[in-house]
Specification:
alpha+beta; Glutaredoxin; globular
């Protein structure tokens, strides 16, 4: 399969309102998304819980921010940029 046939990597950042580290990691992920061509989304775990989905806050709420790559936990509390670059490049 050629690289053009692989779907784009999906990176989701789990955050919480007022989290300065979350904001910094999201800004850096935005820069990396432009460079490495992955889809980036952000989910506030408290907002999701208020909307009826407690699962993310229950699982990840004490370790934010959490970076998920294709739905799997990749790093937490900070961005492991070198590992993310390698994992996206080699997928």
């Amino acid at each position: 399969m050629s690289d053009t046939q692989h779907p784009r990597a999906q990176v989701q950042l789990l955050t919480r309102s007022g989290c300065g580290l979350c904001e910094r990691v999201y800004r850096r992920l935005g820069e990396l998304a432009a460079e490495l061509d992955f889809a980036l989304s952000e989910t506030d775990v408290d907002a999701a819980a208020a909307a009826g989905d407690n699962a993310l806050r229950a699982e990840f709420g004490d370790r934010l921010p959490v970076v998920l790559l294709d739905g799997c936990e990749h790093s937490y509390w900070d961005l492991d940029e070198a590992r993310l670059r390698a994992d996206i490049t080699n997928r």
